[in-house]
């Protein structure tokens, strides 16, 4: 349940460290974003000497939420932090490697590129 | 990247614990192997997904460069083969993707003759930099040369299956290190 002003970790090596959500892409007036939603975020903290700098506005897709993700078979997946992967306008990840486990739902939501870079898919 | 590794390792270990806590409740109703099945297994006959041999044939027909097939079945349970191909230009990359889709849609669908079929999904088709054609157990990545050099996908999947985050040596983590004094002020050594 990510909403504007939410701080998210960055789960890739794009150069950003922490993002703050400012808008959820999709239908207007949407309250919360979950795993697999694209958000517009501003970089609050970045690694020095990286292509992304602080206070840059970028798009990201949410890959981990503290709010559990429910599946049809009754399984729920709950992470310990909120994290996102920085993407560009076309949906390609800006970083080259993803950290942490990724939920399988991202494959159905057309983020197979992120799933194929992930070390572990749940 | 140490902090990133720490964060992801702690979150994934706690995730497994919280994951297991919820699982026993669902085990009563459904078998646990349904987790691995995923949503791609719909009925084996109704799919016009591409097999590995067909993919290789199409890629040689389209004359894609540097085709590599990597068996990732051991380390990933959601896919068996990753095929990487390079296109010489944006148009070539789009052409590779279209050839695969054409084969899946027209040739196989006409053969099987079923109306409702699961076609391989394509991502990134408008921009011809990295197109992914996802057909179940085989995923084809069509990249152009810049993207291939940038993402280095073979390094990701060719490394040994037991590639995890570098395990922190617990003994070393708790060793006290005397801080180096870089300031001009002389340290007061207690007499």
TrEMBL record, chain A:
Keywords: Plastid, Ribonucleoprotein, Ribosomal protein, RNA-binding, rRNA-binding. Its main location: plastid. GO terms for biological process: translation. Gene3D superfamilies: Ribosomal protein L14 (2.40.150.20). GO terms for molecular function: large ribosomal subunit rRNA binding; structural constituent of ribosome. The keyword Transcription does not apply. It comes from the Eukaryota. HAMAP family: Ribosomal_uL14. This is Large ribosomal subunit protein uL14c.
Automatic annotation (TrEMBL), chain B:
It holds the Pfam family RsfS. The keyword Mitochondrion applies. Its main location: mitochondrion. Gene3D superfamilies: Beta Polymerase, domain 2. GO terms for cellular component: mitochondrion. Belongs to the Iojap/RsfS family. This is Protein Iojap-related, mitochondrial. It comes from Linum tenue.
């Amino acid at each position: 349940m990510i909403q504007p002003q939410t701080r998210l970790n960055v789960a890739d090596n794009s150069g950003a460290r922490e993002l703050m959500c400012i808008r959820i892409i999709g239908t207007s007036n949407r309250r919360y974003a979950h795993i697999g939603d694209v958000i517009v975020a501003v970089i609050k903290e970045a690694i020095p000497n990286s292509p992304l700098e602080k206070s840059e506005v970028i798009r990201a897709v949410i890959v981990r939420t503290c709010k559990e993700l429910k599946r049809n078979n009754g399984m729920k997946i709950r992470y310990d932090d909120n994290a996102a992967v920085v993407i560009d306008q076309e949906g390609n990840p800006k970083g080259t490697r993803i950290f942490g486990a990724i939920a399988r739902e991202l494959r159905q939501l057309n983020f197979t590129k992120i799933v194929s870079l992930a070390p572990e898919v749940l | 990247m140490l902090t990133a590794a720490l964060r992801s390792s702690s979150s994934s270990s706690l995730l497994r614990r919280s994951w297991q806590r919820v699982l026993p409740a669902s085990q009563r109703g459904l078998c646990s192997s349904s987790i691995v099945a995923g949503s791609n297994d719909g009925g084996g006959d109704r799919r016009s997904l591409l097999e590995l041999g067909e993919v290789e044939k199409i890629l040689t027909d389209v004359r894609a460069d540097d085709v590599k097939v990597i068996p990732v079945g051991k380390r990933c349970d959601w896919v068996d083969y990753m095929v990487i191909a390079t296109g010489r230009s944006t148009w070539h990359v789009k052409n590779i993707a279209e050839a695969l889709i054409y084969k899946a849609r027209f040739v196989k669908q006409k053969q099987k003759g079923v109306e409702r079929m699961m076609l391989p999904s394509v991502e990134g088709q408008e921009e011809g930099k990295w197109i992914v054609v996802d057909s179940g157990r085989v995923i084809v990545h069509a990249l152009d040369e810049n993207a291939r050099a940038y993402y280095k996908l073979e390094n990701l999947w060719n490394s040994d299956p037991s590639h995890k985050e570098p395990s922190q040596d617990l003994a070393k983590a708790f060793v006290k290190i005397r801080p180096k004094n870089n300031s001009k002020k002389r340290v007061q050594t207690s007499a």
